[in-house]
Amino acid sequence: MIANRNSPHYYTVVIQQCDNYRSFLRKALSERVEKNPSYSLRSFARDLAIAPSMLSLVLNGKRNLSPRKADSIAERLGLSETDAGVLSLMIQLETAA
Q1: How many Cα atoms within 13 Å fall on the side-chain side of residue 38?
Q2: Which of 13, 22, 41, 58 could bond 27 through an S-S bridge, CB–CB 3.0 to 4.6 Å?
Q3: Helices (H) and strands (E) in the chain, counts
């Protein structure tokens, strides 16, 4: 389960059904674009408090997120404590590989 339904950023992507954190972020972005066609990667980056260029590099597998940034993103996405932990573990797994 993901995000508190009362959160302004509620969406239905389930992190546990994603292969990695990049696919989770891509799906979260896609869902927002479906709801608002003018929503963009730049908008998503703003909402996550990350530079658009960095977000693009992350989504394309050229850079990794830090565990610290994972916590910030989880909070900004309104993830539950459990889902925030899953996101953090996914990031740690990718950076350890």
Answers
A1: 0
A2: 13
A3: 5, 0
The total number of residues shown for the chain amounts to 97
φ, ψ of residue 69 in degrees (nearest 5): -65, -35
Q: What is the pTM of this model?
A: 0.83
Residue with tokens 């910030």: 72
* Cβ-contact 11, 26 below 8 angstroms: no
Asked if residue 44 lies in contact with residue 56, where contact means CB atoms within 8 angstroms, the answer is no
Both tokens of 87, joined, read 């996101």
Q: Residues 41-85: pLDDT tens digits?
A: 999 999 999 999 999 999 999 999 988 899 999 999 999 999 999
Residue 95 CB partners (closer than 8 Å, separation 6+): 64
Using an 8 Å Cβ cutoff, are 17 and 24 in contact? no
